[in-house]
């Protein structure tokens, strides 16, 4: 859940809590064990923040400021930032940003105006509180670090190649994606790769010197106008870019494939010392991630991939005729701890990509936790989509843990990673047993050779555990030479393990997972087979026996595919609260061969990489193919076409996968997506209504909608309380009559009307689905589908609903050492239970703040398994003193979020969370006095409730069990006694499935 600090009317000139923003989707407020504050600590360090203002950015501005005309592009058109009206309004926004920063004594570091009205600045806690009170400020977020998310040929698997493939249907690879620009926000590009080979850019315009009408083959050819790249696009608009020079990158490194290359590093360079910087400060890629994603999306067709003398076949981008615009915003540090890109640089990259006029953005990166919808980068992507840009985002590589996704906003297409036909190798043991795993490096028979556990051939000085991991320098060459070595996965990079075996003279490696993980097709320096599960255990155990031998051969029966890769992050989206199904779709992302940057890949030009980062450019490339055929289609119509024509992925035993939180709508079907029949479209106004519906004040006056009613290609109800009706509107892509069928066990679903008639393309029809719970278990996810059928056309939408057990207040309050309070709950089931836990009243910390901008902060922790948590800061300020609390999660001592808690009418700031996660947080206590000698007393308290928390007093709830009528309010009474009168006590009234109500006393 996203925590919501208490809000009231204590602050005189606007409340800081009105700007509540967390960059953690599942942010939990950690508390101390025992429940005593640790601190105060040193003042909270100055940090980098992004401040968003209320006025609309260029892409959505509709002309409501003074006499400045609207700059929002017409439907189906792209923004023109060179227009005089756009320049005037941009000047206005920049001036506004400077004015706001000046009010709190801050200096603007970066301005953003195209996709978001935001600036970045270095701020202390006092400035944060002042900004939060400033009229027109709508959001404040920390500048956090984002990182790249890391058939045997994915283009063959997707059905792109061959005489019946999608490329052939589009006129061949020379036309597949023509007239489309894909913006790749990543680690840069290696322009010398054969995947990007193309004629040089020249000043010759399409059609020649005499202004002749260009041929179809020449119409979209990019050209130079001075130092600006100009390209006329399929939608009738123009892309303008530039080749930004820098370290080891010249203007000539761009060409008719790489039409623009820029880099964005202001935030990262200010945070990372020069001594810890690696790679190139330019668009050039040192790591290979960006080169891989760009070549996957739009690399040339039929490029021969040769590595270490081995011919690996040919590789092709999904949209080989599309062009690439590079926006490098992810960076490399020497120690690896500061690899990635800061929000400020990413927003700058998104802003520029939209200003340049890209058609598609590939966003193969994410944070360490789910981004909030109003995070500046997500806001920028929302406005990019509003401007007609299709945005493909990586779901993350934190699977198979649940609720591990990032990039879950409805305006982007969130991509999961699936497997394709695997490259295999077989290990045949001396006992006659054979095991097949993943291998891209066994090209001929190896052995028979002695098979040993790595620790058996370690040096005398090496630690046994380190040796089993094949850590560098742990193997003894005199004992390793000529042997096949079994190395455990973990700690060190997989390819570094084979490098250590090679250094020590080993002939081959068997890499074994010691727990259930993915098997990966890395290009190892010696022949290697990667095993998982029982096969890994069997080989590991056999290698420890005397006289063990093994033979490695190429091939063997591979696993069923496509499966969702084990590393692919899973839903549900906690930010969406169950009312939006994510991920959206699955695409190939395991063992994908594509171009890389040699410096970061052992000198290789091509390599196999795995991750949702690799899946995302497949979707970006498919969107480019779509736009080359339908240039004016909206991003959401294209997403709908992909989702409703997708097929279920497979489980390990070959059955259809029903895990919607893993696969979304399923595996993308490239050939089917161009014939969707019906599409579910949505636009900026729909997204604003959705945001209002999930509790985000957009400051636009947009009316809230039930989040489940967003016109989305999937259907999700996070809390199906007995019955609920959802609404959808579909647009026909061709004439036809469609009939509905719903498959949802335990829930009666009624579609009205159940038959839809369309006389022509573009016609819209609205329908409802009423869900009534019958036998579905409360609190357990129930999944199924809605399918519309017309002849051979099927339009399938996944459904995910969760019946819930009770509606109850988040908090009830009481006063005095004893007493009682009545409240009402509404159960969804006939059997109702309520359990009182606590009360807890932890020791108080009393202190004072002195001055006009005084602050101190506390750091505290919460253990796993806590039922509930509550922090309170009670202020006793002077009449003209403004007080408040800033808090957030800390990772490795660095704040990762900034949230605000307002004092209530009694002067107490409270942050309450049910079922919090473990972790470390800071709580900054701030007072803005009227003079240097203003003294503000405060009291700080931490209460947490777990199964065995020591209690102070007694709390009961009656009735604690009852037979009730579902959906009918039931009266309860909470009674307490023996609690202290001078300190706050907290109790937690728990219902079925972990739901609960805070009882806050005194």
Give structural notes.
The protein has 1002 residues and is an alpha+beta fold. Helices cover 15% and strands 33% of the residues. Strands 10-14-6-17-19-20-28 form a 7-stranded parallel sheet, sandwiched between helices. Strands 22-21-27-23-24-25-26 form a 7-stranded mixed sheet, sandwiched between helices. Helix 6 (289-298) packs parallel to helix 13 (612-629) and helix 7 (343-356) runs parallel beside helix 8 (376-386). The relative contact order is 0.13. The model is unreliable at 1-42 (pLDDT under 50).
The number of distinct helices, counting runs of at least 4 residues, comes to: 17
Strand tally is: 58
Separation of the first and last Cα atoms: 26 Å
Overall pLDDT metric: 89
- Helix content, binned percent: 10-25%
Q: Hey, roughly how much beta strand do the residues contain? A: 25-35%
Give the low-pLDDT segments.
1-42
For the largest beta-sheet, the strand count, sense and barrel status come to: 7 strands, parallel
Q: What structural class is derived from the secondary structure elements?
A: alpha+beta
The shape is: globular
Rg value? 30 Å
Q: In what order do the strands lie side by side in the largest sheet? A: 10-14-6-17-19-20-28
Note the topology.
Blueprint: E1 47-53, H1 84-103, E2 108-112, E3 118-123, H2 125-132, E4 137-142, E5 145-148, H3 154-157, H4 166-169, E6 181-186, E7 223-225, E8 228-232, E9 238-242, E10 258-263, H5 266-271, E11 277-278, H6 289-298, E12 303-307, E13 310-315, E14 323-328, E15 332-333, E16 341-342, H7 343-356, E17 360-363, E18 365-366, H8 376-386, E19 390-394, E20 413-418, E21 424-429, E22 434-438, E23 446-453, H9 464-468, H10 477-480, E24 484-488, H11 494-503, E25 508-512, E26 528-531, H12 533-543, E27 549-554, E28 585-588, E29 592-595, E30 606-609, H13 612-629, H14 635-644, H15 660-663, H16 670-673, E31 678-679, H17 684-693, E32 715-720, E33 723-732, E34 736-743, E35 747-752, E36 755-758, E37 764-773, E38 782-790, E39 793-803, E40 806-807, E41 811-814, E42 819-827, E43 831-833, E44 835-840, E45 844-850, E46 854-862, E47 868-875, E48 882-891, E49 894-895, E50 899-901, E51 908-914, E52 919-928, E53 935-945, E54 954-958, E55 961-963, E56 970-977, E57 985-990, E58 996-1001
Parallel strand pairs: 6-14, 6-17, 10-14, 17-19, 19-20, 20-28, 23-24, 24-25, 25-26, 32-39, 41-58
Antiparallel strand pairs: 1-3, 1-4, 2-3, 5-16, 5-18, 7-8, 8-9, 11-15, 12-13, 21-22, 21-27, 23-27, 29-30, 31-33, 33-37, 34-36, 34-38, 35-37, 38-39, 40-42, 42-56, 43-55, 44-57, 45-53, 46-52, 47-51, 47-53, 48-49, 48-50, 48-52, 54-56, 57-58
């Amino acid at each position: 859940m996203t925590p919501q600090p208490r809000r009231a009317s204590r602050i005189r000139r606007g409340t800081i809590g009105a700007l509540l923003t967390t960059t953690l989707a599942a942010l939990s407020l950690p508390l101390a064990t025992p429940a005593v504050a640790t601190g105060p600590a040193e003042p909270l360090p100055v940090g980098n923040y992004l401040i968003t203002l209320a006025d609309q950015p260029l892409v959505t501005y509709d002309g409501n400021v003074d006499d400045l005309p609207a700059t929002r592009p017409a439907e189906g058109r792209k923004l023109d930032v060179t227009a005089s009206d756009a320049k005037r309004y941009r000047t206005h926004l920049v001036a506004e940003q400077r004015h706001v920063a000046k009010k709190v004594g801050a200096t603007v570091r970066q301005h953003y105006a195209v996709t978001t009205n935001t600036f970045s600045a270095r701020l202390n806690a006092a400035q944060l509180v002042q900004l939060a009170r400033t009229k027109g400020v709508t959001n404040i977020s920390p500048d956090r670090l984002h990182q790249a998310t890391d058939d045997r040929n994915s283009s063959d698997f997707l059905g792109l190649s061959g005489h019946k493939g999608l490329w052939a249907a589009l006129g061949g690879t020379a036309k597949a994606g023509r007239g489309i620009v894909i913006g790749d926000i990543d680690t840069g590009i290696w322009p010398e790769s054969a995947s990007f080979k193309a004629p040089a850019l020249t000043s010759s315009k399409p059609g020649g010197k005499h202004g002749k009408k260009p041929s179809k083959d020449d119409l979209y050819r990019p050209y130079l106008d001075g130092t600006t790249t100009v390209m006329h696009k399929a939608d009738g608009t123009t892309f303008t870019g530039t080749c930004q020079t820098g370290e080891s990158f010249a203007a000539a490194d761009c060409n008719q494939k790489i039409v623009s290359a820029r880099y964005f590093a202001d935030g990262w360079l200010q945070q990372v010392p020069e001594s810890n910087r690696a790679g190139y400060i330019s668009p050039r890629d040192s790591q290979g991630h960006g080169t891989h994603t760009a070549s996957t999306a739009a690399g040339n067709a039929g490029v021969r991939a040769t590595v270490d003398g081995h011919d690996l076949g040919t590789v092709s981008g999904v949209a080989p005729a599309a062009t690439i615009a590079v926006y490098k915003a992810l960076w490399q540090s020497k120690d690896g701890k500061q690899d990635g890109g800061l929000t400020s640089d990413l927003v700058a990259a998104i802003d520029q990509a939209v200003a340049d006029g890209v058609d598609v953005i590939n966003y193969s990166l994410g944070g360490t936790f789910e981004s909030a919808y109003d995070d500046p980068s997500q806001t920028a992507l929302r406005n990019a989509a509003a401007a007609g840009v299709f945005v493909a985002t990586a779901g993350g590589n934190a699977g198979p843990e649940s609720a591990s996704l990032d990039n879950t906003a409805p305006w982007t297409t969130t991509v999961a990673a699936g497997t394709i036909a695997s490259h295999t190798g077989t290990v045949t043991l001396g006992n006659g047993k054979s095991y097949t795993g993943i291998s891209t490096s066994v090209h001929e028979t190896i052995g028979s050779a002695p098979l040993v556990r790595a620790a058996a051939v370690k040096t005398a000085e090496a630690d046994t555990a380190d040796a089993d991991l094949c850590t560098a320098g742990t193997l003894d060459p005199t004992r390793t030479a000529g042997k096949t070595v079994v190395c455990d996965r973990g700690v060190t990079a997989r390819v570094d393990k084979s490098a250590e075996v090679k250094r020590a003279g080993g002939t081959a490696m068997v890499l074994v997972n010691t727990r259930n993980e993915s098997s990966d097709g890395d290009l190892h320096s010696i022949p290697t087979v990667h095993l998982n599960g029982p096969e890994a255990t069997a080989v590991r155990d056999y290698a420890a026996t005397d006289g063990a031998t093994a033979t490695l051969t190429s091939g063997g029966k591979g696993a069923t595919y496509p499966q969702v890769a084990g590393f692919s992050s899973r839903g549900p989206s906690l930010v969406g609260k169950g009312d939006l199904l994510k991920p959206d779709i699955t695409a190939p992302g395991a063992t994908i061969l594509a171009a890389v940057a040699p410096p970061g890949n052992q000198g290789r030009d091509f390599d196999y990489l795995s991750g949702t980062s690799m899946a995302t450019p497949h979707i970006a490339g498919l969107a480019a193919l779509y736009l080359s055929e339908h240039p004016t289609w909206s991003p959401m119509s294209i997403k709908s076409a992909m989702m409703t024509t997708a097929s279920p992925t497979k489980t390990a035993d070959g059955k259809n996968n029903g895990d919607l939180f893993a696969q979304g709508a399923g595996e993308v079907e490239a050939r089917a997506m161009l014939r969707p029949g019906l599409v579910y479209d949505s636009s900026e106004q729909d997204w604003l209504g959705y945001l209002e519906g999930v509790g985000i004040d957009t400051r636009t006056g947009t009316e809230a909608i039930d989040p489940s009613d967003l016109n989305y290609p999937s259907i999700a109800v996070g809390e199906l309380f007995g019955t609920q009706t959802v609404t959808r509107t579909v647009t026909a892509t061709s004439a036809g009559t469609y009939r509905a069928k719903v498959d949802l066990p335990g829930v009666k679903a009624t579609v009205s009307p159940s038959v839809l008639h369309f006389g022509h393309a573009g016609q819209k029809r609205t329908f409802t689905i009423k869900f009534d719970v019958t036998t579905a278990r409360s609190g357990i996810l129930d999944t199924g589908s809605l399918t519309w059928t017309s002849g051979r056309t099927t339009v399938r939408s996944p459904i995910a609903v969760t019946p819930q057990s009770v509606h109850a207040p988040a908090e009830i309050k009481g006063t005095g050492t004893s007493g009682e309070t009545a409240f009402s709950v509404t159960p969804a089931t006939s059997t109702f239970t309520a359990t009182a836990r606590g009360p807890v009243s932890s020791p108080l910390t009393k202190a004072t703040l002195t001055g006009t901008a005084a602050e101190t902060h506390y750091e505290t922790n919460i253990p796993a398994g806590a039922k509930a948590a509550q922090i309170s800061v009670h202020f006793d300020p002077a009449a003209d003193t403004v007080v408040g609390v800033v808090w957030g999660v800390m990772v490795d001592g660095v704040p990762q979020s900034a949230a605000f808690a307002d004092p209530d009418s009694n002067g107490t700031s409270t942050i309450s969370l049910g079922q919090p996660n473990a972790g470390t947080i800071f709580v900054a206590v701030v007072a803005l006095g009227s003079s240097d000698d203003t003294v503000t007393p405060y009291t700080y308290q931490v209460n947490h409730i777990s199964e065995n928390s020591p209690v102070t007093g007694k709390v009961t709830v009656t009735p604690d069990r009852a037979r009730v009528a579902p959906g009918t309010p039931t009266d309860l009474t909470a009674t307490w006694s023996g609690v202290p009168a001078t300190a706050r006590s907290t109790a937690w009234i728990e219902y079925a499935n972990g739901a609960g109500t805070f009882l806050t006393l005194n």
